[in-house]
Design a protein that fits this description.
Number of strands: 13
Distance between the termini: 56 Å
Number of helices: 1
CATH class: Mainly Beta
Radius of gyration: 15 Å
Largest sheet: 6 strands, antiparallel
Strand content: 35-45%
Number of domains: 1
Shape: globular
CATH topology: Jelly Rolls
């Protein structure tokens, strides 16, 4: 048995290449665990969000506090609240983040591929996508 005390998980600032705004990441599964499963608690300040990205084996999010937004490519933005669970399929292009006026924290669970990679990061989410405009081609 190994107990990691809560005060030993030092949050790290999410890199600006992958996030817009202020995001704090606390890696729950790190050494000495031998697993390809990665679990992270991510806390987004109001308006903060990920860039568009995909996961090789999919991703599960559970919203633990605040209010957030998620979007799958080609579909409209959706508001999410505490207790909501979101599943993104492997390779599904998406983003997630906080509402404009509220923080949001979620638990993220994903598996690493054979090279240890958990995500493929793409371009930043535009203000139009973040604002919830309908997807292209929608009237």
């Amino acid at each position: 048995m190994n107990i990691t005390r809560a005060n030993s998980l030092a949050p790290k600032r999410g890199p600006s290449d992958y996030f817009t705004g202020t995001v704090w990441l606390e890696e729950v599964t790190s050494a000495p665990y031998a697993s390809d499963v990665r679990v992270v608690v991510a806390t987004f300040e109001p308006g903060a969000r990920t860039a568009w990205h995909t996961h090789p084996h999919g991703q599960l999010l559970q919203i633990v506090s605040g209010a957030g937004r998620v979007q799958k490519a080609g579909e409209g933005m959706v508001t999410v609240l505490p207790g909501d669970v979101i599943w993104f399929e492997p390779g599904e292009r998406h983003w997630h983040g906080a509402a404009p006026d509220r923080r949001m924290a979620h638990l993220a669970v994903q598996r690493a591929d054979e090279a240890g990679k958990t995500a493929t990061w793409q371009e930043q989410v535009s203000d139009v996508d973040y604002a919830g405009s309908p997807p292209s081609g929608t009237v």
